[in-house]
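Supplementary Methods, section 5.1.

A reviewer requested that the exact input to the structure prediction be made available. We therefore reproduce it here, unchanged from the version used in the analyses.
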Amino acid sequence: MTDSAHTEAETDETATGTPEAPELQALRDDFEKFKDLYVRSQADLDNYRKRAAREIEDARRYANLSLLERLLPVLDNFELGLDAARQSGGSEGILQGMSMVQKQLQDFLRESGVEAIEAVGTTFDPNIHEALGQEPSDEAAEGIVTRQLRRGYKLKDRLLRPSAVMVSKGPAEE
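The structure derived from this sequence is encoded token-by-token as follows.
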């Protein structure tokens, strides 16, 4: 190799070799950092989209929650009135009409996804029952619901209102 060729090779090596290696490594590090940032940003965006879709679905499923919660006391009072009319021996036509309205209300609630919680005879569950007191019972073991004072309701998988219940504390002590 001639001296000028040897000098050109050294110049090329200097231009692409050791002195530029730290700059090249810095570029590679930056590339990896930004690639990682891009992947994380994509994952965050995907999670956001999924969360937003879930929230929209929940909003649709439970859109009538407030209305239904406000309707339950009306249904309770209607049922109390119907029971009082039956006990007082009211007119058969009025009782029949009130029974039809009660059935329509119950059908409306069922079609809206509301279901009554059956409490009597079940084990007390603080997630769906509200204990108003305990009472002795020879028929029911301790912790079993003996009476339901107010019916509870669920809307799909959410509790609308807990059942107000009396819970057995076992046989009466003598």
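The longest strand covers residues 129-135. These observations are discussed further in the main text.
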